[in-house]
Amino acid sequence: AFRDKFSLNFPILADLGHSVAEAYGVWGERTVGERTFTGTHRVTFLINPNGHIARVWGSVTPTGHAAEVLAEITAQRG
Length: 78
Fold this sequence. Notes:
By secondary structure, the chain is α+β, with helices and mostly antiparallel strands. It contains 3 helices and 4 strands. Strand 1 and strand 2 (35-40) form a beta hairpin.
């Protein structure tokens, strides 16, 4: 539904048991304002065509981030 709603042309993951988030080290305690809770940290992983992590962005701010990732993909393609 989400993928169709936003016309995404790539697979997305529903990590209901957060096993993938744990494997990537992005599941844990986080604080937003004065609220502390367990959840997923805002991190972006760029995975190359060989399945390797090509770049990691930590503490992501959504505004402008997609353009930054796209620029990195373009740069890595040469």
